Structure formats: C-alpha cells, structure tokens
Amino acid sequence: MNSSRNPNIDSSGDPSTVQRQPLDVSEEFSFRISGNPDASPAMSPFNSTSSFQSPPMSWGLPSLTPKSPWSSSFMANKDSLTFRTGLIGSLVRQEGHIYSLAAAGDLLYTGTESRNIRVWKNQKEFSDFKSRSGLVKAIVISGDRIFSGHQDGKIRVWKISTKDPRCYKQVGTLPTFKSLIKGSFNPSNYIESRRHNHALWIQHTDAISSLSLSEDKSLLYSCSWDRTFRVWRISDSKCVESVNAHDDAVNAIVSGFNGLVFTGSADGTVKVWRREFVGKNTKHVLWQTLLKQECAITALAIDSSDSIFYCGSSDGMVNFWMKGKFLSHGGVLRSHKLAVLCLAAAGNMLFSGSADTNICVWRREGGTHFCSAVLIGHGGPVKCLAVEEENSSTDGGGRRYVVYSGSIDKSVKIWRVVAPSSGDQRHSIPPPVENHGAPPGLPAVQSFSFPAQNR
Questions:
Q1: pLDDT score at 419
Q2: Residues 366, 453, 413, CA angle at the centre, nearest 5°?
Q3: CA neighbor of 385 nearest in space, from 429, 417, 422
Q4: What is the pLDDT, as a whole number, of residue 40?
Q5: Measured between alpha carbons, how far is 70 from 349 in angstroms, rounded to an integer?
Q6: pLDDT tens digit string along 430-454?
Q7: What is the 3-state secondary structure (H, E, C) of the chain?
Q8: CB count, 10 Å around CB of 390?
Q9: How many Cβ atoms sit within 10 Å of the Cβ of residue 86?
Q10: Which of 383, 330, 332, 390 is nearest to 359 (CA)?
Q11: CA dihedral 26, 379, 108, 167 (to 10 degrees)
C-alpha cells in the first residue's frame, strides 16, 4: 500500500474543520506561506542559497552566445539513454534563479529573475525576449501566443512572427492600457487593496503566482498573492471576472474536468470552482472545498485523461483525488522531506519537484501509484517542471518523456524518463507509506538507472 488517507479528509472527500496555527515563515521562492507582505524573506528556510551549491560539472561548454549568461552541458553518452531513464544535459545560468518553465514540442521557454524569457530548441539557444519590468513567475503557451505572469502583477502577451520563428513581439498587457483608462473613470470599478489604497478590480495588486488555460483555450486564468484569481477572455483581452478566492495568497491554479477550476492557497485550502454561463458572460462559483490543513498548498496538477487531480503542499505531501460525481480523496504520496514546489502530469506519470532538491517519478496503475525513479542532480530546490512526450515507437518497452526541471541552483536540467509498459513490475517499487525520505533502493546519482528487480 503506497497511499494513506489524510486525517483532514473523510472517506467521502469532504474536509473536516482544522484549527490553523500561525506560520513562522513569510514566503518561499515560488509560493507564499504567509499573507504578511511586509515580512522579511530571510525568515524562510528556502530563501538562503548558501547551503545549496550547484553540483560540479565535468562536461561543459562556454556561453552559447557572446552576450548570453547561459552555458550548456550535455552527457557524452546521452544517446545510450534512449530506452532508460537518465540525465541528458543541463543549461546553467551565470546568476539568478529559474522561476518558470514551459515546453511546446521541441521548444523550451525559461523565465528567470532577469525579466528575460529565453527560448531553447533541441536544448540549444534559439531566441529570447525581455519585458520592461517584473521577474517571470509563470509561462503558458497557446498556439502562436505566449502569456507570461510577472512579479509586478501584470500579464504580458507575446506573439511569434509568421515570417521569422525566432522573432517574438509583445502584443499586449493584461489588463490592457485601454481597459485601465476606461475603468478609471467609474468609481464603482475600484476595490480596496492591502498594498494600495485603491485599485481597479481588473488588475492584480500583488505578484502573479500561476497561469492556466481553459480546456477550450478561450479563457486564461491568473492567480495572485493578492488572494484572488481572475478570468481573462483571450479573444478580446478583457478581464471578465475577479474572484476573491482565499484568505491568504493563492499559489497555484489549474483548470480541467469540463469546466472546473482548482485553486490552492497559503491558507491551507484547495477549492474547486465550477464555470457557469450567465447569458453571454462567464461566472465561477465555489463547487467543493477539497482540503483544509495547516500547511500551505504549493502546487497543483491535473491528469485530465484519467480524471485525477494532484495537490502538493509545504509538508512534502502530494494528495490526490479521483473524479466521479464529486471528487473523492484517493490517498497521499509520501516521498519528499521538504515542501513540494511543483507538479507535472503526463500520461500515467506524475513528476513532483521539491525543496529537498529531488524529483520523484510516480507511475500510476489504476488508483495505485508507484515511485519508479528519483531524479537527483540539482544543488537546490526544484522550483518548476515541464514535460513533453517524445515521438517514438514502443520498441523500447514504454513511452518516453523529456522532463525539464528548473532550480534555484541556477540550472535547468534535462532528463529522459522511460515509462515501463503497463504491468511491467521490474521497474516499480512502491515507496513506504510513512517514510518521508527517498524510497530505499533508488540510487542517488545524476544519471539514473532503474534499480534491480525487488526480491
């Protein structure tokens, strides 16, 4: 048995009331665990980089271009990893943390505190574009448009040139300048704000923490440390709704399951919102509260194909729910020692990145999850993940994925993960339910190979 029931949730999936205690830390690199905006970041145990050093690299190349702050490194035997899990290469920045990643086909987008978004193709520097202000906290891709969420509370919209795929042009900002001017003349459009005396309801008043697209790609969802999420209609770049979602910073938002939106907050709750249509307008109403706990919710992910929702929190746990008429709690995945900072789902695989510097690879069969690998190689907390399935035959015995992981060790690591065929137990060992450390038998090496069959 590799999952256990959360004591804060009953068997029907309804959360019980929990008395929350004040948190002693203010904020983490990719999420906030306290709503006090004036607290010193130094209070967080994850905000000190002195104890996290990048691992020595024996296979490096110089900067990719004369002005580039990046250098690339690749394993000399990366082609031998075609049918097994391992580290392919690494992109290392001279300074600054990696805050966000997004992948689309053979392109990878990286966001850092320099306000730069750099584009990589086949692990080589391809292009870059830079905003005027605000470090890049989130990136989502929709066709030829890229949406980036920033520390300054704004969303910037970029478009790929039809003539030159290396050319990216900023085509807008959300909210638009026109909307701000038009709304400013009506006093009823202003709301109270913790950081400002007043602000328009269409604008975030604190850092944007996460972005997500609706299933039909018609809406963009943004959540913020200002405790709200907003709904943007992509066709005309208008904010159509602002929802006061939580009692503390909203750290993550995802959408799926035919019109549901999930939000996770530093207040320890996970809420589900149902999209409804009122005439030509869209409205989101609270449908279900999945979880109430003391620990901050730090990451969310959805496997839409099998209707499974995942939630990571600052205690290192990953809860999951399965969708029926309602969402029912399926169990808890325990493998990380520190906070889960990011989650990514692909096929029957789940990837969890943590402040303990590791990435756990979970394989799901039915309602059971097995930890099939632990990817070890980062020298600091893993803050963001992106996954793409490789176009390949099944001759090697399973699907293959390219996993990108970004860390505060100034690097993006590139892994190939091979998912064993269904029913193949040679590469599966269930992690212990009560052990918060890495499952025994998994080697802590940069180039991971599957353990021997359990005896």
A1: 82
A2: 75
A3: 417
A4: 34
A5: 30
A6: 443 332 333 333 333 233 323 333 3
A7: CCCCCCCCECCCCCECCCCCCCCCCCECCCCECCCCCCCCHHHCCCCCCCCCCCCCCCCCCCECCCCCCEEEEECCCHHHHCCCCEEEEEEEECCCCEEEEEEECCEEEEEECCCEEEEEECCEEEEEEECCCCCEEEEEEECCEEEEEECCCCEEEEEECCCCCCCEEEEEEECCHHHHHHHHCCHHHEECCCCCCCEECCCCCCCEEEEEECCCCCEEEEEECCCEEEEEECCCCEEEEEEECCCCCEEEEEEECCCEEEEEECCCEEEEEEEEEECCEEEEEEEEEEEECCCCEEEEEEECCCCEEEEEECCCEEEEEEECCCEEEEEEEECCCCCEEEEEEECCEEEEEECCCEEEEEEEECCEEEEEEEEECCCCCEEEEEEEECCCCCCCCCCEEEEEEEECCCEEEEEEEECCCCCCCCCCECCCCCCCCCCCCCCCCCCCCCCCCCC
A8: 12
A9: 23
A10: 383
A11: 80
- Low-confidence stretches of the chain (pLDDT < 70) are 1-68, 70-83, 95, 189, 193-197, 392-397, 421-455
Query: What's the pTM value of the predicted model, to 2 decimals?
Result: 0.79
Per-residue tokens: 8: 């804060």
Structure tokens at 438: 């890495």
Q: What are the tens digits of pLDDT across the range 196-212?
A: 567 878 889 999 999 99
In the numeric block, the tokens 């709304």 are attached to: 183
Q: Provide φ and ψ at 130, rounded to 5°.
A: -135, 135
| Alpha carbon distance 76, 57 (integer Å) | 12
Q: Tell me the C-alpha distance between 379 and 103, whole Å.
A: 23
The two three-digit tokens of residue 5, written as one number? 């029931």
Cβ neighbours around 217 below 10 Å, total: 11
* Predicted local confidence at residue 60, as pLDDT: 34
Tokens of 250: 């909203």
Distance CA 306, CA 318 (A): 17
Quick one: CA dihedral 386, 350, 308, 250, positive or negative?
negative
- Residue 401 C-alpha from the chain's centroid: 17
pLDDT of 131 reads 83
The owner of tokens 């009692």 is 247
Q: What is the token pair recorded at 107? A: 């392109």
Confidence at residue 321, expressed as pLDDT on a 0 to 100 scale: 96
